[in-house]
Structure formats: structure tokens, C-alpha cells
Amino acid sequence: MVKIKSLEEIELMRESAQIVSKTLGMLAKEIKPGVTTIHLDQLAESFIRDHRAEPGFLGLYDFPNTLCVSPNEQVVHGIPNDQPLLEGDILSVDCGVLKNGFYGDHAYTFEIGEVTEATKKLLEVTKKSLYIGMEAFSYGNRVGDIGHAIQTYIKSFDYGVVRELVGHGLGKSMHEPPEIPNYGKRGRGKKFINGMVIAIEPMINLDTKNIRHFSDGWTIKTADNLPSAHFEHNVALINGKPQLLSTFDYIYEALGIKSDEEIPFKSYL
Ligand code: MG
Ligand code: MG
Description:
- The structure is a single chain.
- The protein has helices spanning about 5-30, 35-50, 115-135, 145-155, 250-255, and strands at about 55, 65-70, 75, 90-100, 100-110, 160, 165-170, 175-180, 195-200, 205, 210-215, 220, 230, 235-240, 240-245.
- The protein has one domain (about 5-265): Creatinase/methionine aminopeptidase superfamily (Creatine Amidinohydrolase, Alpha-Beta Complex), CATH 3.90.230.10.
- The strands form 4 sheets. The chain has a 5-stranded antiparallel sheet. Strands 1, 2, 4 and 5 form a 4-stranded antiparallel sheet that branches. Strands 3-12-11 form a 3-stranded antiparallel sheet, with no helix packed on it.
- It is globular.
- It is of the alpha+beta class.
- One magnesium ion binds near residues 94, 105, 107 and 201.
């Protein structure tokens, strides 16, 4: 059952989404060559607790850490470790928080120093596909419209859309119905109605869409060991339009990036 949220509940969810957005903004300043992902994990946990929230992933389905950190060919669910990041790496950081009984869930793929043009393009296109998916989250549309929009855009670049992992409803549980795949057919699936809150999260591979599971039971990587990117926002449907609860603004502020990509999704409150 899809759980519809009241405007008051959506405001609480915005608070959770903002804390996780600020956490990634704080990490943006720390992510550089030589830094270990376990260090980032510790920083994130302290930051979240300082904001009187709880790490949302720690202990969820027995996940051992605050962050999922997935470098290069890792798609998602990587476990923090003591290996230093290297110049030219990319690092997908996925983070959850729980505050006032509601979850926030947000992800960004960072560049470590200078990355190749091909990798840069993968990140740019994956992030753009997130906003293209968000545009399809409007009154009267259905789940398949988001997936169809993302898949159609990604196809024009010949990248691989990961199918085994999907976006999801978000609320008092980290994963609520409906599932939001990054592929699909127009007009199919659950109809969107006001008060729905979802996490949209394209996971896009440079080449093959196929994935492999690590023996640690968590980490997922591309089958061809080529890079993969992941961006995730939390979005509420208000007055028939998608309204962003999370933001990349804190990351952009930390990295000195100028962007107006979120403006169309912030105008309905
Ligand atoms: Mg998610
Ligand atoms: Mg996530």
C-alpha cells in the first residue's frame, strides 16, 4: 500500500532530506585523493548525530555503516574501508537519515581530482536523467512514465540502465511501495497522486547494464568493471507537481559549482 503523506508529514520529511543533503555537502569538502571511505563514514555519522538525527542505513537490513560508498565500477551498496581514494576515481556516496520518524535517502557521485572525459560525461548524463525522471513524476502519470523517461534518455548515450535495483517510496520506512524502476513503459504501473513521496535514483553504467554481486553480500559492481554512476533525490508530489525535498545545493556550494537544475522543482511551496 502506498502511504500518502500530509503536508505536515512532508515538512518533516524535508527536514530529514535536508540533513542528508547537508551531510553530503560536508563530505564534498573531504572527498579527495588519499582519504579513506571509513574516515568519510565516521565524519558522516558524527555529523548526522550532531543534527539530532540517526544514520538511516546503519543496522538497516544489518548494513554495517552510515554510508554506502561505491568507487568506480561499484554500482551501489559498497562498504566503507581503509583504502585511500585515488586521483581519477569516482565515488558514489549514498546516505540515509532518520529524524522525527521519517527517512531521508540521498546519493551523489563525486569526482576525485581529474577524471576521464568519458567518466565525466557518464556522471553528467546520469544526473540529468534524474531530473528527466523527476519531470515525469506529475499528477495523473504513472510509475512507468518515470522509468520510460530515464531509459529513453539514457539509451541515446548507449549506457546501461541497471534493472535489478530501483527507486522507491519513502516515509516512515526507508523502502515503501511503489518501486520506481529506471526503465519502464509509458502509462503503466501505479498512478501518482498528491502526497506521494518517492526516491528517484538512476544507477547507470558506462557500458553493460549487467551487474555482479561481491561475496561480502552487499557490494554490487558492473559485470565489465567499467564505471557506474548513481544520483538520488527525494521528491514529493504537491499540487500535482514534483517538489524536491533533498538538494545538491550544499555539494555545489562546497565545490563551487553553479547550477539552476533544481529551480523547476522548488517552485510549488
Ligand atoms: Mg534509495
Ligand atoms: Mg539511497
